[in-house]
Amino acid sequence: MNLIFLQIHGRVNESLKKSVFAVMLGFIEQLLATLFVMSLIFTYCLRIVDIQGESMENTLLHEDRVIIGLLYNKPKAGDIVVIKPDEAVTLSDEGVLEFSEGIHKTIIKRVIACEGQTVDIDFDKGIVYVDGERLKENYVTLGMTHIDEGAFTGQYPVTVPEGYVFVMGDNRPVSMDSRSDKIGFVSEESITGRVLIRISPKMDFVE
Questions:
Q1: How do residues 84-124 score in pLDDT, each as one tens digit?
Q2: What are 193-207's pLDDT values in tens digits?
């Protein structure tokens, strides 16, 4: 009788061990699959970026951490985008595109106007117009657009060429952006992604 009990007990223990092992193996497989998928997502779809500088205050502050979407098609006005402007694009006196060396630095700015739209800036009053309409820029809280940085001095209003956008930082007094002759119009190809969510110091959607 004891022998039968020991045999049954042994089989139960062996079955239990196999069951626990199978559960652990399944968990490890799921964990590895999840990590693999997350790795693919953060390689090809999303990226975490740390904000450096004050040009997007108060929307994004220095050392904020955000997630950007890499699968980004046509930019829209109001989008906050990550750009690597290796080429500065301005206009000659005849209105022809001129190309010069860019700043070779990754920056984050807000899209103000897209291809085909016309931008005008009243630097005396600090007002930005797109297609003749004054922009309602509630995000600009640290000073209006009073500084002309030389990209299109004397040429406003300017029409954004095909394949380009006009960008500015929300903190206009300190932002180097499309107003600058070191940036000018920004090629859509130089946009690497759009800011989606702030994850640090607090999590929220960015607009």
A1: 999 999 999 999 999 999 998 999 999 999 999 999 999 99
A2: 999 999 988 767 676
C-beta of residue 88 within 8 angstroms of C-beta of residue 101: yes
Q: Is the pLDDT of residue 128 over 80?
A: yes
Question: DSSP letter at 78?
Answer: T
Q: Can you say how many angstroms the Cα of residue 4 is from the centroid of all Cα atoms in its chain?
A: 69
Tokens in use for 42? Answer: 């953060």
> How far apart are the C-alpha atoms of 146 and 181, rounded to whole Å?
16
Cβ count within 10 A of residue 137: 18
Do strands 97-101 and 127-130 pair parallel, antiparallel, or not at all (unpaired)?
unpaired
Helix (H, G, I), strand (E, B) or coil at 97: strand
Separation between Cα atoms, residue 2 and residue 160, nearest integer Å: 90
SS3 content of the chain, % helix, strand, coil (to 5): 20, 35, 45
Supply φ then ψ for residue 42, to 5 degrees. -80, 0
Q: How far apart are CA 111 and CA 81, in angstroms?
A: 7
Give pTM, 2 decimals. Answer: 0.81
Q: Which helix (H) or strand (E) holds 200?
A: strand 191-200
DSSP code at position 185: B
